[in-house]
Specification:
Elements lengths: L4 H10 L6 H19 L33 H4 L6 E2 L2 E2 L7
Antiparallel strand pairs: 1-2
Helix pairs in contact: 1-2
């Protein structure tokens, strides 16, 4: 697989980039070099290597949900800028 100047022009058009002829040629060479390097990965023998999604072990650090008592209403309302009937009163956001 290789990248042509037409491929670079197509991607530049999609990205709404205006490239000079020199830039098109430069990016074509660079992208082909990247693809060639990536193709070297196909030379590796991965037989017997299990697929992984992360290179380091990752464990869920979230705790289980536990039902517990809520804070008392008077303690919660201490942080309210304004209160009305035991509820936070906020400026209207809809007319």
């Amino acid at each position: 697989m290789s990248i042509s100047v037409q491929d670079v022009e197509h991607v530049a058009k999609l990205a709404r980039l205006k490239l000079s002829d020199q830039e098109k040629e430069q990016f074509t060479v660079q992208l082909n070099a990247i693809l060639k390097y990536a193709e070297k990965l196909n030379e590796l023998d991965t037989e017997g290597v299990p697929p992984t999604s992360h290179v380091i072990p990752i464990a869920n650090v979230m705790r289980e949900d536990v039902v517990r008592e809520s804070l008392p209403l008077d303690k919660v309302m201490r942080n309210a800028p304004e209160e009305e009937d035991g509820q936070f009163k906020v400026p209207a956001v809809l007319e």
